[in-house]
Amino acid sequence: MFSKKNIVAVCLFWVLSTAGVQAQNVFPSFADLAEKLIPSVVNISTTHDKDDINTEETELNNHIETNVNSIFNAPLTNKVSLGSGFIIDENGYIVTNNHVIDKAKTISVILSDDSVYEAELIGKDAKTDIALIKIKTNQKLAPVTFGDSDKIRIGDWILAIGNPFGLGGSVTAGIVSAKSRDIESGPYDNFIQTDASINQGSSGGPMFNMAGELIGVNTAIFSTNGGSMGVGFAIPTNSITFVIQELKKHGKVDRGWIGIKMQPTTLELNQSLGLSENKGAIISEVTPDASAAKAGIKAGDVILKFDNHEIDNTKNLSRIVAETPIGKKVAVEIWRNKQRQNIELTIEKMPEEKTPQMSIPQPDSDANDVVENETPTWIVGLSLSEIDADLMEKYQLSPETKGLFVLDVQSGSDAEKKGIKKGNIILSIDKRPIVDITDIQNAVNDAKLAENRPILLQIKAGEQLYFVAVKPKAKEF
Predict the structure, then answer these.
(1) Which ranges constitute the DSSP H helices of 285-350?
(2) Each residue's pLDDT tens digit, 3-47
(3) List 45, 48, 102, 129, catalytic entry
(4) Residue 466 to residue 380: CA distance in whole angstroms
(5) Is 291 one of the catalytic residues?
(6) Is 99 assigned a catalytic role?
(7) Is 401 exposed, middle or buried (0-12, 13-18, 19+ CB in 10 A)?
(8) Which one is catalytic: 81, 84, 99, 408?
(9) Does 202 qualify as catalytic in the annotation?
(10) Is the Cβ–Cβ distance between 305 and 311 less than 8 Å?
């Protein structure tokens, strides 16, 4: 017979044993996966002239510089930068971050067996922070397997492998915290966010899913102290495949271009155009004689689909256009005059001097004075004046300037919140050219009758053009 004490002890033992089994079932071991993947990951060291080394990298590597110099026999007059990378094929091609090898005099690669090779720079792309290097070796290399980064979900487990603080191959685990993060590091930001520990020196290292497939390149961290704070960012593999192919072929990236400037849509902007959903990208300006202009695209059009891709935002469209083969004819669905329209255009090569399309500018102006003896008209929080000879002379406007001049902006008005400033010029309202002040007065009255829908203003700020949707409820004077 068991005593109560024995029964309690047996039950407690069973509970603890069961909890241990459950814990093993719930929390996976990454040992087998890590053992398989580590040979695909490399450590990267570069030497730089003193004047070229990044100050932050110098501070990071001060405590390990002596050891690294002894390993690579680098002259002590040079500085050493450390990073990570991964093998993508058996021919010795390796991917890393551009900032890891930027301005490097020499690039050295350490494989997982500690063998060291000098690497050749094949090409680099600052816009995506990706670089391609190559080593020559008779060793059998272990390339990574590329996965589909679009299929990962928030909450999925991932492994990150890299070279934090120059310590060598280190494996960390975490989950996908978020997708499609824009951290304003470049024109094609689309980062995977993770809570896996990623530190300085891990840049260029791979991120894997639980099938052992590459889904990202560890590139950046958010930190207030230089170390991991559980917020790391990786470039998705689906965003780098095109870049790697271009670097292999040309040593640089030739991107597609159609000659537009665009801005993010908002619900108010779309409502002013008759769209009930906040989707697409609104065209703020079209380059004359470029592909978009030849196809008939106009400022104020909203691109909803491009080459069968649904368009969610401007960065999404920029990336798709850039990765579309030059010379390809693509179908584009636009929203114009409160209906969908389909057009076709041909992808051109992005001019090297052009910068990628960016979102809505925040205009500046030195026009802070009201014209003497001018009687302003206040509409939707704006003090407006028709452009006459006095205004042209005072603000050095060209004789061809048309529209309404913004003399002042009401503090706290919706117009101020939307970024309209003194000195801006309103070119059109609801996509109709402005002839005189009555045009905007009539448009505001129409908008009020239509349940106070926003009115669409096309603004000229310096040389920049963009659209804003302003509520017709501002205090009138």
Answers:
(1) 291-295, 314-323
(2) 555 555 555 555 555 555 554 556 678 999 999 999 999 999 998
(3) 129
(4) 18
(5) no
(6) yes
(7) middle
(8) 99
(9) no
(10) yes
